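Fig. S4 source data, part A: sequence.
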Amino acid sequence: MPRVRIGSARRKRVKKILKRAKGYRSGRHRLYRSAKEAVMRAERYAFFGRRQKKRDYRSLWIIRINAALEPLGLSYSRFMNGLKKADIQLNRKALSELAISEPQAFADLVDKAKKALAPA
């Protein structure tokens, strides 16, 4: 039985890693071992980054809502509680967009939330 050489399989594996390391600086795009480490690290950060992005956006929406509520005299937590009691089910992204683009509609929502918070 002839000896099996790994030439084509290795070349394929190396080319795949080096292709993904394109644009990296110095040996990280040229040397296989460095490139492999850099690509593995980049993939790990990308994985965590996709989850981090969701957290970042949620906190941005909350900050925007809170900033829009300040002149209307209501805190974020009381506003969200009022919306829940008024049975208004809008997510934070939609509320943030309303606060920016439709301030009058947002003010109406704040009034409804305040009425729901008032003691019956």
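Fig. S4 source data, part B ends here. The CA atoms of residues 8 and 90 lie 56 Å apart.
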